[in-house]
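Regression test case RT-17, inverse folding.

Input:
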């Protein structure tokens, strides 16, 4: 594989998408989505999907291609991404993967542990348990079940905590034991370079707060109204996307619009904090790390040919 593959990575609301557009222009590239919420067709505003004009300028892949009633997972994404990468490389087009979902990137580069698929009924069971005993008790319960797997996992990283419990419950084998198996690689990535943006967290939080207001102005409430009309199971990932539960509460007159905005900002800031922690502790080979926002970097000042 001679063509270079680029990853433009970092926390949400940092401005990766526009930087990737400039990079694609410079390198004759096309963009592949690596964000777990931007895959869903019903989430446009709340997932901050690239605009139609941006997608016209440069071809984008794996954006809005999955219906919200499909429980998409990391293996499915890796399979789709691998196919797109190979397709672009064969055409001598530079693949540029953009996103903030660390597990997607790590799994694509390092491979996936083969764990049996977890049935929907088990996922519903974990959802019920969290509702019944609360997040803190659930966190402590899972930590007792598999302390190795829970190492370095934050209390509010509920998706990863649920995954550990579900695997343990369904397979009767610890998640940490499954992780000891050899990873299955779907693609052999050799010529890749990671550009990681980790701006100051407090500045990142400010951008989150600003973007939340813009999302409300751009139709986020109407987007959630349309989503709710589809009557999807509330246990599905799309129904827990940042902004969906909060706007749903507003539409039920349970909270004011001001409270709704504040709650969206808070859950998103919490997510940004987890993203910063994840990327700082990641053992992925980083080509360039920036402590600025992408729009503060002159792309022509980066030596992309450096090894």
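Golden output:
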């Amino acid at each position: 594989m001679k063509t270079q593959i680029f990853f433009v990575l970092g926390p949400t609301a940092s401005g990766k998408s526009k930087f990737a557009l400039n990079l694609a222009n410079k390198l004759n590239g096309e963009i592949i989505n690596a964000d777990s919420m931007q895959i869903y067709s019903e989430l446009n505003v709340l997932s901050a999907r690239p605009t139609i004009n941006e997608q016209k300028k440069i071809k984008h892949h794996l954006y809005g291609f999955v219906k919200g009633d499909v429980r998409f997972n990391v293996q499915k994404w890796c399979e789709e991404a691998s196919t797109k990468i190979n397709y672009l490389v064969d055409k001598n087009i530079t693949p540029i993967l953009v996103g903030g979902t660390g597990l997607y990137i790590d799994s694509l580069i390092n491979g996936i542990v083969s764990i049996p698929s977890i049935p929907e009924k088990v996922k519903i069971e974990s959802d019920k348990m969290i509702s019944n005993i609360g997040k803190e008790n659930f966190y402590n319960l899972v930590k007792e079940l598999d302390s190795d797997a829970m190492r370095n996992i934050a209390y509010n990283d509920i998706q990863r905590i649920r995954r550990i419990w579900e695997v343990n419950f369904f397979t009767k084998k610890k998640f940490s034991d499954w992780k000891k198996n050899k990873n299955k690689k779907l693609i052999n990535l050799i010529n890749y370079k990671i550009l990681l943006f980790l701006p100051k967290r407090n500045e990142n939080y400010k951008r989150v707060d600003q973007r939340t207001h813009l999302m409300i102005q751009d139709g986020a409430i109407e987007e959630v109204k349309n989503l709710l009309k589809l009557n999807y199971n509330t246990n599905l990932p799309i129904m827990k996307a940042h902004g969906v539960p909060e706007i749903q509460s507003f539409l039920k007159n349970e909270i004011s619009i001001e409270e709704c905005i504040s709650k969206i900002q808070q859950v998103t800031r919490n997510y940004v904090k987890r993203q910063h922690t994840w990327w700082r502790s990641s053992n992925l080979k980083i080509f360039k790390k920036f402590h600025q926002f992408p729009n503060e970097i002159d792309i022509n000042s980066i030596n992309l040919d450096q090894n």
